[in-house]
Amino acid sequence: MTTATRPQLRLTGQARAAYVLLWAFLLLNLVIVELMLTRPNTPAHNTLTTIGRVLGLHLGFALALQLLLIARLPFLDRRIGLDRLTGWHRWTGFAIFWLVLLHPTFVLLGYSQPGKIPILSEIPTLAKQLPVALGMIAAILIGVIAATSVRAVRKRVPYEAWHTIHLLVYAVIVLGVVHQVYEGSAFKTNNYTQAYWWGLWAFAIGALLTGRVFLPLIRNLRHRMRVAAVVAEAPDVVSVHVTGRDLHKLHARAGQFFLWRFPGHNRWWQVNPWSLSAAPDGHSLRLTAKAIGTTSAGLRDLPVGTRVFAEGPYGAFTATGRTRTDTLLIAGGIGVTPIRALLEDESLDGDIVVLYRVRTPADAVLLGELRNLARLRGARLHLLTGRTVEGNQPFSPENLRGLVPDITERDVYVCGPAAMTNAVLHSLRALRVPARQRHAEVFRLAA
């Protein structure tokens, strides 16, 4: 059968429905917000304070939307993918940052304009009011979170520290709600607008508590996971085998990841996203991690029997998202873990090609397992080694097409360092591989 006549799988309607539902929710609420601004409860002092009020209401809506994006609701995660939702969370976060700067700025300008008072002189006066002071504290915390989210800073901050700093978002939520109770006037036009506004916030907070607290607690009480074995795969790489009760009810799939905690071995706020490095069989789970941070380096010392608290499974980096029969799997470094699991997944049928990028053959973690699986599945495995220099760029468009001539007829899964993943995605776009056939896992996790 030629590549031109290979059958195309039907694109899942669940993912399309999730996108439609999310955009409909966003647009409907934006329309309601704009309508609320047309008839305020109390007139603003002047044009500047009117602009400040408009920005403030949009800031409140953006904060509520942010809660939904970080709630990790299974309905959205399994259809859209936590990584993509977290990407939207990142951009929403920067929108919030600018709204936090502009909202109080216009309010201060509006209050200082009539008496021609210097804007900075208005800050101590307004700060004496408790609701305003709480809003200022929330703004400072948002500034701290935004500063640590800048790529240049993010690369230099350990994941554990970055995640701990991002827990400040919960303090921002509390302070923001209190601030709105006393200062919000745009949504107090009548009982209907108030019911809508607080209903929106109740829904967002309820979704957050459900996805981040209740579901993880229920799942961990049900499954009672513990460490069954710890296996050194390389001097700086270790696999942890986890067992528990009724693990098949987790409905985990190859390519997904969990957020792992080891109570008693690490502090409760130390959590790391690690992919399953083997296709789940309903009886055990396996994660494989490289010693990069404090938590990952400490996995080697985990005692057998250690209690495991896992949130998940998360991610849409699975075979269910395929649109074509044949598949290309691309891994870089320790990013081989979900790729190795996908290669084991029997639902990934058709012709399979695997590209594994490492500096040296000694750096190729789980290479023996990949070779065995490739032999069993009839897949072609290419180990790509050496430094990425001008004469050795395996993921350039030309080299990718040379390795996989029918690449545009395949679904492509890529996981590895950010630079490698970006290079692959850039080449796939240059080769005109449709977006629906490109699948990437880069772990841009929210708090």
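That was protein one. Protein two is written in the same sequence-then-structure order:
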Amino acid sequence: MSASSVVMLPYALASVAAARQRLSAELLAGGMTVGTVDDVVLVMSELLSNSLRHAHPLPSGQLKVAWICSDDQVEVSVSDGGAATEPRAARPTLSSLGGRGLGIVEYIADRWGVRHEDESTTVWAVVQASWPARNGEPRTTGTPALREVG
């Protein structure tokens, strides 16, 4: 499977659910294993939630969510208008109410990072893709290679 999508979303909490539904539907329709879909959707949700919590919208007043699927990986990204601080994984205490989003992304994703463009900041993550094998057992392909998301 090779597919990609770019979705412009309102700068609003309801956008997280809308993005989750669209991404999940596309990946499942493409035949990806449910476990991989769950991981990719969780990563995208954390990136989008962090953007809404810590960053400004793009000049259009929206956020851009994108994903690219290949045979061995899915890259998801969220672009916003940037924030006063650089996105980084925190190390919250057990009693902390927040601060776990990028730690979750770091745990699930093979890699993640931040790109700065003219008026936007993009946080991206790459998750290894798993597809059902012909005998019904999950098949995971080779080492993912980084691909830029426009």
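The chain has a mean pLDDT of 80. Keep this in mind for the problem set.
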